[in-house]
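Good morning,

Attaching, inline, the backbone tokens for the sequence recovery test we're adding to the shared suite. The designed sequence is right after.
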């Protein structure tokens, strides 16, 4: 059931993948889009002349707070915030590497929190605002090589579960999308799957356009969670079971020097 009139939407990370499909969908339907990217892309700006492009790295708490405060002061706060920007990195293959782990957490977790913090500090306003996080089904089975990614999405889910309850009944609506596989740049990174597993995963994937459609419809509701595509959930559950039951389910099982495995 529709609960919000979407006149203006803010989307982070629209240079590719799901974010770009969202920009395309909203712009074509006549909604004013505020597109937040860490770099300018001339091709994107000329393709969507009705959209407004803001150059802000979501990892910058100051930059994001300034943007939100500026929109509020101008009376231009969006009805819907889709906090989509995200990255994946290999951080746990032969060694545990702190730098890529930290970069992923700063982007995927703080890149969302940086928006939520100033939004919750604005004075009460009668207009309903929806804050949509793009989490992931890696909450159920994460890649052990992209440990920062799994950590960031699980933390994001924990935050949004808490906020959707704490802010229930207010004009701030917290929603999250538990996204399954979508063939984008992020899709195969930090994974070391055998070919047969990749082809199974491909069969459970959704297109960026279908994902954008599902997210834009979900943002009209007050529902807390969307699993999309739902057909991918049993796959992630099965992998979760495999990881628990079968030692070495993933290649690259770690050994400590001089220790034999018990
Ligand atoms: N694809 C999947 O299978 C899948 C599954 C579950 C969840 N997700 C989530 O879906 C979201 C979208 O990912 P995608 O699959 O569409 O990947 P993508 O094609 O790699 O797009 C990621 C977007 O985030 C932007 N971005 C990265 N770091 C940023 C920063 N610091 N500040 C501002 N923008 C930044 C990228 O901009 P640049 O071009 O500048 O790098 C790009 O526009 C992510 O949160 C991802 O975790 C994806």
């Amino acid at each position: 059931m529709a609960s919000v009139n979407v006149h203006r939407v803010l989307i982070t990370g629209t240079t590719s993948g799901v974010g770009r499909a969202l920009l395309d969908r909203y712009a074509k339907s006549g909604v004013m889009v505020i597109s937040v990217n860490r770099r300018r892309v001339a091709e994107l700006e000329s393709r969507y002349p009705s959209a407004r492009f803001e150059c802000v790295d979501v990892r910058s708490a100051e930059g994001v707070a300034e943007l939100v405060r500026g929109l509020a002061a101008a009376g231009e706060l969006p009805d819907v915030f889709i906090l989509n920007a995200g990255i994946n990195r290999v951080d746990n293959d032969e060694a545990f590497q702190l730098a890529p782990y930290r970069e992923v957490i700063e982007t995927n977790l703080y890149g969302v929190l940086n928006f939520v913090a100033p939004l919750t500090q604005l004075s009460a306003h009668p207009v309903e605002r929806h804050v949509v996080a793009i989490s992931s089904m890696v909450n159920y089975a994460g890649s052990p090589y992209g440990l920062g990614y799994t950590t960031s999405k699980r933390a994001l889910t924990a935050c949004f579960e808490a906020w959707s309850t704490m802010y229930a009944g207010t004009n701030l609506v917290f929603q999250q999308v538990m996204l399954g596989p979508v063939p984008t740049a992020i899709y195969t990174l930090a994974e070391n799957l055998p070919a047969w597993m990749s082809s199974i995963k491909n069969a459970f994937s959704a297109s960026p356009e279908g994902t954008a459609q599902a997210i834009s419809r979900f943002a009209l509701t007050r529902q807390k969670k969307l699993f999309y595509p739902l057909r991918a959930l049993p796959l992630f559950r099965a992998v979760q079971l495999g990881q628990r039951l079968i030692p070495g389910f993933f290649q690259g099982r770690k050994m400590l020097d001089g220790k034999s495995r018990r």
